[in-house]
Request: fold
Amino acid sequence: MRKTLKEIAELVDGEVVGNGDIIITGVSGIREADEGDITFLANPKYFPLIEKTRASAIITSRDIEAPTKSVIRTDNPSLAFAKIVSFFVALYEVKHPQGIHPTAILGKNVALGRDVAVGPYAVIEDEVSIGDKSIIYAGSFIGQYTKIGTDALVYPNVSIRERVTIGNRVIIHSGTVIGSDGFGFVVIEGLHHKIPQVGTVEIGDDVEIGANVTIDRARFDKTVIGKGTKIDNLVQIAHNVAIGENSIIVAQVGISGSTTIGKNVTLAGQVGVVGHISIGDNAIVMAQSGVSKSIPPNTMAWGYPAKPQDVAKRVNACVQNLPRLYNTVAELKKKIEELEAKLKDK
Reply:
């Protein structure tokens, strides 16, 4: 694919500054880019890389001044670059399965919409409903009475248990298990007795779920993932958890049972959340934090246990001073002992 810089600018409603006739043949990161590539720059701290990159052109914000290379000025460089990447990648996009593979196993009363694809050795059990243009890759399992919406994409070796509801345009990556039993046991005379988990999982439209994620079914009602939420790899979501719309759950997060996560919440990598609490809308919990109490809306929290960021920073600053404080106390203790010895001699 060869496009002029001017043609690419038209794709993203951008403004060309420099030579609009430059031919662009690929996309790349600003450090890795080579001649013929277009890249982007959104963070001001990387502005010095403009002089170093080998890229032929750069997508920038509209406030950049006197660029030394040809650029496309846009309102949102990251979004514009994403559109351009999608345009170029579409030319080399892997073709998804089409039709029903002869080795696929379909149960009784399975309802498949228009242009549904089912890959080799996939198992679709009784009474399953799959919407138009959805794709089930090889080796995946769809349990009884499960409903999957339109344009869904289920990659290889995904397990979706019985009576799960999945919305439209949902993407589920390999190794993920949805609807596994919640972790519930009662101890009687020292033995763990399993509590039946008879609820379900409900996943809203436009959700993306990474690889090797586990989302447990509810004990009675439903575990809910709100529409537009994005879940990274290796995340554990326990029974009866409710996650609001457009939230971001990053890799290795663990959310215990019956916790409520609001809308537009971000849980950064390796955050752990105890059960039966709530995290309010627009809250951000920073990486490796341990959340032991509810967090109000619009709060940035950090630490173990997690606290509002300004409080956590002050606590951390005090912790960093402990070695110096220890030495000071030791010196004061020594002086007190010397003074006591003198007073005793008198």
